[in-house]
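Lab meeting notes turned into a lecture example. A postdoc, R.K., suggested we walk through two folding results consecutively so the class can see how the record format repeats. The first protein's sequence and structure tokens come next.
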Amino acid sequence: MYDPQYEEFRGRLDRLERMHRKGYGFEAPGTLGRSYSRRRLPGRIPLWRSLGTIALAVVVVKALILAQVGQINYTQRLERAAGDSVVQQVSIYIMQIDPITEWMAGEIRRLAGLPG
């Protein structure tokens, strides 16, 4: 027995199944569904903020090392670490004592009660 309404119904079901396989969602208009409650992911962190954080971490590590070993010993270790490769030269340049590192090391020594 042929029923045109049943054929139309089967066609709609087939279409819905194809859409489900493709990953489409179904929401009734005017309802609060998945798209409403989807969590917004935070945006990407800007490059300058990442580089600034890395630079700050390097300065803090340098200050901690300088506060612990002292200025004379720190400079001697840098001289011993100097080498011919570009990587060694760049790392020695980065690890040089700068005014910010020196000030921060002094503050760390003062707060920790270390002789300075």
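The second example is placed directly after the first for contrast:
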Amino acid sequence: MKLIKLISYFIYLALSIHLPANYRPLGHIFRSIRNANAKLFLNMHGGKLNIEKGAKISPDIKVGKNSMLGENSRIYGGVSLGENVLMGPDVKIYTRNHVIADRAIPILEQGDNFKPVTIGDDVWIGANVIILPGVSIGSGSVIGAGSVVTKSVPEYKVVCGNPAIIKSSR
């Protein structure tokens, strides 16, 4: 089973990620190929998935049903997406950051620390959003385009800015 996941992940990185975008002529065919390939290596909570062209993902993310990963997004290990998550293009979700505690050791040699990211159900993440390690985004929230999310977001909040702050409630 692990071999099938590894092979399907390699095929995704080598081929599927480069298939034409969904909005192109016959894009629904390319989307179907990309999604079928990804389902072989992803940890899925359910059915329907939409992965846009260029989305770089790792096999150890968890994706809820009916979620969409935006074009050219970057989502690596330790991310859990709920159901009905809508993601714009160029979203980046990070789970690792450099350790900088010891000034006597170069930052490059201090390693990194890992903090998982959790995104609830029915969340809309706008284009060019950056979500930093350890952040949780509550269900029903909206993250405005271009925001940098440095702290967790409660349920049903609309946040935007750099750093992202609560602007309103839904």
